[in-house]
Design brief:
The structure holds two protein chains of two kinds. Chain A is of the alpha+beta class. Helices cover about 30% and strands about 25% of the residues of chain A. Chain A has helices at about 20-30, 90-115, 120-130, 175-185, 190-210, and strands at about 45-50, 55-60, 65, 70, 75-80, 85-90, 140-145, 150-155, 160-165, 165-170, 215-220, 225-235. Chain A has a five-stranded antiparallel sheet with strand order 10-1-2-11-12, covered by helices on one side. A five-stranded antiparallel sheet of chain A has the order 5-6-7-8-9, covered by helices on one side. Chain A has a two-stranded antiparallel sheet with strand order 3-4. In chain A, a hairpin with a 2-residue loop joins β3 and β4. Chain A is extended, with a radius of gyration of 26 Å. The termini of chain A are far apart. By secondary structure, chain B is an all-alpha fold. In chain B, α6 packs antiparallel against α7 (about 100-105). Chain B is extended. Classes of the chains: A alpha+beta, B mainly alpha. The interface of A and B includes residues 14, 104, 124, 127 and 131 of A. Chain A: Belongs to the peptidase T1B family. Chain A: InterPro entries: Ntn_hydrolases_N, Pept_T1A_subB, Proteasome_bsu_C, Proteasome_bsu_CS, Proteasome_sua/b, Proteasome_suB-type. Chain A: GO terms for molecular function: threonine-type endopeptidase activity. Chain A: This is Proteasome subunit beta.
């Protein structure tokens, strides 16, 4: 009788069973013709600034996968809690999932304590998670929100670094956007002026960076509530369909037609009375 | 925060656990269950995060307990560990799903969601442990 110790400890979380297989496969594929598919990155311009009445966040809406535009109306401003929103740049799936997890954790906290979470809590949770995974989660995030201690704007890098500044830009178009922000930012701006400045910053990112484009989304967070304007400005370069591409009947000519009737015989018949009382 | 008191723990080495493969019949490697073997796979981790993730909970606990000991004295971690040990024993037979409710509440896992709650659900796993063998292992009859 052979010993088969299938004592198998079940634990949840990341599984490392396929680690060595993945490494071997990658080695095979690099030498061969095919390559592993690249994850969809957002190649973005995101920006945010703190104004007198709250926080204004802005983002473009293009998601690229290699050299192809994968999504023209991608939503990059994610909901975290009623008073905190987050723009995400980097790998699309990573930003999506990370912000979802953060939002779930903060919802549990709000239910436990009965109050809206603070922006610093969101930042700390994110920092812990991203540092734990040592940058393997490719998410650069801009968090903005209004809570009991004021208006805040933070950025969290993929390795867990944070920065607390009045105006920010991240993503592949960040240098272009930051130029506009540096030039025209003033502390305690009015709301309309702040929205225009963020729009201009994202616009310059769209114009100067290949990875950003299409429409501009703006999210305004104040003590009274949130105004998520999607899209704030549509791009002038929208495609217009030249004609209808539906094929009418008779487009393809029928060469032969053969009809085979299926012979079915009734084997059993049961009648069940329906109770229509 | 996860990085509190990290320096004091750097001296203790991270234990390398569970990298050996399954031994099948007659002490030979069980190819059907655990795939082909190679010495490199056993010695080196296949991913940068494998070691750090496998030992993450252990390291966190070690760090937190040592901090607690420094702040409040030896009784604090001892009491907590006693409670954890008691809560860990509240479970069903090894091959059944236990909820670990008391342990989760003590550790604070009931107030947070992370990848441990989403990925790799044991009820969906492809491998099933043999009940008799697992019971014998648990009772020490193996």
């Amino acid at each position: 009788m052979s010993l088969t110790p299938l004592v198998y400890s079940q634990w949840m979380g990341c599984s490392w069973d396929f680690g060595s297989i993945n490494v071997a496969l990658e080695g095979l594929l690099e030498g061969g013709q095919t390559k592993t598919p690249k994850p969809m990155k957002t190649g973005t311009t995101i920006a945010g600034l703190v104004c007198k009445e709250g926080v204004v966040l802005g983002a473009d809406t293009r998601a690229t996968s290699g050299e192809v535009v994968a999504d023209k109306m991608c939503a990059k401003i994610h909901y975290i809690s009623p008073n905190i929103y987050c723009c995400g740049a980097g790998t699309a799936a990573d930003t999506e999932k990370t912000t979802d997890l953060l939002s779930s954790n903060l919802t549990i906290f709000s239910m436990n304590s009965g109050r809206n979470p603070r922006v610093v809590m969101a930042v700390n949770i994110l920092q812990d998670m991203l540092f734990r995974y040592r940058g393997q989660i490719g998410a650069s995030l801009i968090l903005g929100g209004v809570d009991c201690s004021g208006n805040h704007l933070y950025t969290v890098g993929p390795y867990g670094s944070i920065d607390n500044v009045p105006y920010l830009a991240m993503g592949s178009g960040d240098l272009a956007a930051l130029g506009i922000l540096e030039d025209r930012f003033k502390p305690n701006m009015e709301m309309e002026e702040a929205k225009e400045l963020v729009r201009d910053a994202i616009h310059s990112g769209i114009m100067s960076d290949l990875g950003s484009g299409n429409n501009i989304d703006i999210c305004v967070i104040t003590k009274q509530g949130v105004d998520y304007i999607r899209p704030y400005q549509e791009s002038e370069y929208k495609d217009k369909r030249q004609k209808r591409y539906k094929y009418g009947p008779g487009t393809t000519s029928i060469l032969t037609e053969k009809i085979v009737p299926l012979e079915l015989e009734v084997v059993q018949e049961t009648v069940q009375q329906m109770d229509t009382a | 925060m996860n990085t509190r008191g990290l320096r004091s723990q750097l001296k203790d080495s991270v234990p390398v656990t569970g990298m050996g493969q399954q031994v099948g019949a007659y002490g030979v490697q069980d190819t059907l269950r655990s795939g082909f073997s190679s010495v490199k796979n056993e010695l080196l981790p296949s991913h940068a995060l494998e070691l750090s993730e496998k030992n993450f909970q252990l390291n966190q606990d070690k760090m937190n307990f040592s901090n607690l000991r420094n702040i409040q004295g030896l009784h604090a971690p001892l009491k907590l560990q006693m409670e954890y040990r008691a809560a860990r024993q509240i479970q069903r037979l090894p091959f059944l799903q236990s909820s670990h409710l008391a342990l989760d509440t003590l550790k604070g896992n009931d107030e947070s969601i992370s990848f441990e709650d989403i990925l790799n659900d044991p009820s969906q796993s492809e491998m099933v442990g043999e009940p008799h063998v697992m019971m014998e292992y648990k009772l020490g009859l193996m």
